[in-house]
Amino acid sequence: MNAVLTFVLGFSLGLVIYGWERYRFWQHLRQMLSFLPAELNETSSLSLVSRLRRGIKLTVAGYEERSVQVERLAQILAAAPIGYLQVDANDQLHWCNAYSRNLLKIDRWRPGQARLLLELVRSYELDRLVAATRATGQPQLERWVYQTTAWQAQSAGDAASVPYAIAVRARSLPLAEGEVGIFLDNLQQLTDLQQSRDRTFADLAHELRTR
């Protein structure tokens, strides 16, 4: 009799544990479904497992599609006739295209390197733009004359410093996780035209006054 009672109690306890574990399993599945696409909701006629399987497939497909889109965007930015820089949350240069490297004379950076932006581009205005973008969470605009010293190799083998100055306009965009995207325009030609026009008007005004 005692053996039968022990068996019944053990069997009952096993059923309770099995029921509890099964309940936890299905609750866990429902939690996982909450992170999957919205179309897989509770009104679906599919079972939880089927919905989870389908949701995983949709999520993977969506991830692959976004990866392709990101790659296309990177290719477009790489060849764009406008500069683009991306700075991470630690103020390190994450990525930049060829146009921006030429415009700002960035010649000591390679993809995958962790270098502070200020080490590569010594510009207070650019650093201020990044800081203001993070602080406000809003796009910012900055215009300035970027100046640096470029080094050119001479025929004799020595290196000589060549002053470099160019009018630049930068427009920033706050990104996820504290990163900042920066678009750069070369305003030097426009600045030269304005200065030429101002000189012409000044010469004309001087002529009229001296007549």
Mean pLDDT: 76
CATH topology of the largest domain: Beta-Lactamase
Any low-confidence stretches, pLDDT <50, length ≥5? 152-156
- Helical coverage, percent range: 40-55%
Distance between the termini: 132 Å
Number of helices: 6
**What is the name of the CATH superfamily of the largest domain?**
PAS domain
What strand order characterises the main sheet? 2-1-5-4-3
Q: Quick one: how many beta strands?
A: 5
Q: What does this protein structure show overall?
A:
The protein has 211 residues and is of the alpha+beta class. It has two domains: 2-67; 81-197, 2-Layer Sandwich (Beta-Lactamase), CATH 3.30.450. It contains six helices and five strands. The chain has helices at residues 2-33, 48-79, 98-103, 117-120, 124-136, 188-210, and strands at 83-87, 93-96, 141-153, 159-174, 180-186. It has a five-stranded antiparallel beta sheet. Helix 1 packs parallel to helix 2 (48-79). The model is unreliable at 152-156 (pLDDT under 50).
Question: What does this entry show, briefly?
Answer:
This protein is an alpha+beta fold.
Throw out a few tags for this protein.
2 domains; 211 residues; 5-stranded antiparallel beta sheet; 5 strands; rod-shaped; alpha+beta
Write the layout of secondary structure elements.
Layout: H1 2-33, H2 48-79, E1 83-87, E2 93-96, H3 98-103, H4 117-120, H5 124-136, E3 141-153, E4 159-174, E5 180-186, H6 188-210
Antiparallel strand pairs: 1-2, 1-5, 3-4, 4-5
Helix pairs in contact: 1-2
